[in-house]
Amino acid sequence: MMGTAVPPDITYEALTADAHNEDEHEVHSVYTDETIKTAIKQGIDPSGE
Q1: 19 is in which domain, residue-wise?
Q2: Which residues partner with 27 through β-bridges?
Q3: How far apart are CA 34 and CA 1, in angstroms?
Q4: What is the C-alpha separation between 39 and 49, in angstroms, rounded?
Q5: CB atoms < 10 A from the CB of 35, how many?
Q6: Structural domains counted in the chain
Q7: Which of 3, 13, 14, 30 has its CA 20 to 30 A from that of 39?
């Protein structure tokens, strides 16, 4: 069925907040202004991946 995928929350508030997601399956490193710039420019997340 089309339209059933739920995209991740990539708002500034979500990226810079506590790393534990509500569903407890996805955890990310907390972004800073500098790591957000690196992610956009180079595709590298705060953990270096």
Answers
A1: 12-42
A2: 20
A3: 38
A4: 10
A5: 18
A6: 1
A7: 3
**In this structure, is residue 31 part of a structural domain?**
yes
Is the separation of the CB atoms in 45 and 39 below 8 Å? Answer: yes
Owner of token pair 């972004």: 31
**pLDDT tens profile 17-47:** 875 555 555 666 889 999 999 999 999 988 8
What does pTM read for this prediction?
0.63
User: What is each CA distance from 26 to 2, 4, 34, 41, in whole angstroms?
Assistant: 23, 19, 22, 23
Q: Which residue has the tokens 């590298």?
A: 44
Q: Looking at residue 13, what DSSP letter applies?
A: H
**Helices H, strands E: what count in the chain?**
2, 0
